[in-house]
Amino acid sequence: MAKIGNIALGDFPLLLAPMEDVSDPPFRAVCKEGGADLMYTEFISSEGLIRDAAKSRQKLDIFEYERPIGIQLFGGEIDHMVQSAEIATQANPDLIDINYGCPVKAVACKGAGAALLQDIPKMVKMTEAIVKCTHLPVTVKTRLGWDDQTKNVTEVAERLQDIGIKALTIHGRTRVQMYKGTADWTLIGEIKNNPRIQIPIFGNGDIDSPEKALEYKDQYGVDGIMIGRAAIGNPWVFNQMKHFFETRSHLQPPTIEERVNVVKRHLDFSVRWKGERLGILEMRRHYSNYFRGLPNFKPVRTQLVESLSLAEINSLLEGLIEQYAGVLAA
Length: 330
Description:
- This protein is 43% helix and 13% strand.
- By secondary structure, it is α/β, with parallel strands linked by helices.
- The protein has 2 domains: 3-247, TIM Barrel, CATH 3.20.20; 256-323, Orthogonal Bundle (Non-ribosomal Peptide Synthetase Peptidyl Carrier Protein, Chain A), CATH 1.10.1200.
- The strands form 2 sheets. An 8-stranded parallel barrel has the order 3-4-6-7-8-9-10-11, surrounded by 5 helices. A two-stranded antiparallel ribbon has the order 1-2.
- A hairpin with a 2-residue loop joins β1 and β2.
- The longest helix has 19 residues, at 256-274.
């Protein structure tokens, strides 16, 4: 049984990764329906929270049906991270997660995210300050290291555990790799099997099928897996993996009707959360992913992304059921 503090997550939890411009409440809602055991907000800038920036504040929105849910923070200044953790605690999540893994320049070049892998003493000091400022469990997401010469995640895991974090998620790439190449889970497995490590270790990176999820579960012995890009347009991936773990057989792929119904629920959540116009606009990025593999989908996609009418979009979606009856997307 994997536990983060007092949060019981089952025998082998599947986590939804925090993804910028993806892991918002509407997307999290359909992933929860699809079997996600623990989810995180998009990562939130500590500077934005302190300045009371509307976009950062809105990312604190969490709903009861999402629990357990973690708020993920990033920043380069210890005192600002503490202030933002105090603000996030007031939003009443189940845990606070610190991002020491984001590789993008806009984050890392400001001394935040994966940049802290170059300054372990500061990372430890920042984490300890956050652990002390909140009553919630604090978890961390990070990478193997900055580059191939500095894969220091073993030291990171031990030192962060010693100051009180309750779980660690490790992405199997360095910062320099960004999202290229293949994720290396070898170090993740070594950390999980380190007798000094008592907290849950979750693996992340390149898990895109039930077969691979089971293979890595068995090979590396991690406590759970975090799913990122494989869930985009595919929120039922969590239940597909769980079914495969239990039966070694695949669930039937979702029918076009099931796909359409999930998209309509996603759109409905989006409109209720953001308002009709913005909810419709923000949904546009998802259609291609949901209907990936459908032949001749492009003309319908064009209509979907050009329409600002909720009734028209729902009518177009309904039309897909008839148009693609009996056709399964890849």
